[in-house]
Design goal:
This protein is of the alpha+beta class. It has a single domain (3-113), classed as Arc Repressor Mutant, subunit A. It contains eight helices and three strands; from the N terminus they run ααβααββαααα. The chain has helices spanning 3-10, 13-24, 29-36, 40-52, 71-74, 77-85, 90-98, 101-113; strands at residues 27-28, 56-61, 64-69. The protein has a three-stranded antiparallel β-sheet with strand order 1-3-2. A hairpin with a 2-residue loop joins β2 (56-61) and β3 (64-69). α1 (3-10) packs antiparallel against α4, α2 crosses α4 (40-52) and α3 packs across α7. The protein is globular, with a radius of gyration of 14 Å. 20% of the residues are buried.
């Protein structure tokens, strides 16, 4: 585990916000763009930095990349402390709760696959 890369990745506010959101649930780029109210390119760049530090992973779901926190990271005590002590911004949390993009896509996609 490269702690320099990890702390460097989390030192940026946008990347920290993304990490805190992903601690709550997995999200795709379009959801993060809507929740954070920032450009898709900025979200993608931040996700790349977090992935390079091995903090997050992704999986394909059709045409979508779904991002989530690397389970190995969560075993480290420092990340348990971060999860416990640093809260998601209220505005991000409210927008995450209201974000239904992937949910509506998933329902449509699942029905088409049957």
């Amino acid at each position: 585990m490269d702690w320099i890369k990890i702390f460097s990745a989390l030192s940026d506010e946008t990347r920290l916000r993304i990490f805190l959101l992903l601690l709550r649930r997995e999200l795709c780029v379009c959801e993060l763009t809507n929740i954070l109210e920032i450009e898709q390119s900025r979200v993608s760049h931040s996700l790349k930095e977090l992935a390079n530090a091995q903090i997050i992973l992704n999986r394909r779901y059709g045409k979508w990349n779904i991002y989530f926190v690397n389970p190995k990271i969560l075993k480290q005590k420092i990340f348990a402390a971060i999860k416990k002590e640093i809260n998601v911004y209220d505005k991000d949390l409210k927008r995450m709760i209201n974000c239904k993009i992937r949910m509506s896509y998933n329902s449509k996609n699942l029905n088409e696959e049957k």
